[in-house]
Design brief:
It is a single chain. Helices cover 20% and strands 20% of the residues. The chain is an alpha+beta fold. It has a four-stranded antiparallel beta sheet with strand order 1-2-3-4, with helices on one face. The chain starts with a helix and ends with a strand.
Length: 128
């Protein structure tokens, strides 16, 4: 076998052949997601918010006044929700209840002022 064929045979065995594209599904597309055929890319996927709030800076800890919280099946427990609000800098959280749209709501204090606060199924926190 000549040297070129040997090299080609070794490269093939080592996986240096042509690259094949792989597709990985990473969740359930949002109900209004466009397919990749019409959008030109991957299907839109709603992902949970994994950011950690900074209690030292409650104004920047997902506590934007008037932010729109997303409706959806919320799996946070009352204790998890209370903890998340505390991490975001809210104090004296009272009346924590989950509404019919899956948004946890409560009265709390932020920077010494009373606020109504909500947390959605992604973990986004917003003063209302």
């Amino acid at each position: 076998m000549n040297r070129t064929l040997q090299t080609l045979a070794i490269l093939t065995v080592l996986g240096a052949g042509p690259a094949l594209a792989q597709t990985t599904v990473t969740g359930t597309p949002a109900p209004d997601a466009k397919s990749s055929a019409t959008s030109g890319g991957q299907e839109a996927v709603t992902r949970p918010n994994t950011d950690r709030p900074d209690a030292a800076k409650p104004g920047t800890a997902h506590a934007a006044t008037g932010a729109k919280l997303e409706e959806g099946a919320n799996s946070f427990t009352e204790a998890q929700t209370h903890h998340r609000l505390t991490e975001a800098g809210y104090k004296d959280v009272k009346g924590l209840t989950k509404d019919d749209k899956g948004i946890w709501r409560a009265d709390a204090m932020l920077n010494g002022k009373p606020v109504k606060v909500g947390i959605d199924f992604k973990g986004n926190v917003a003063a209302q």
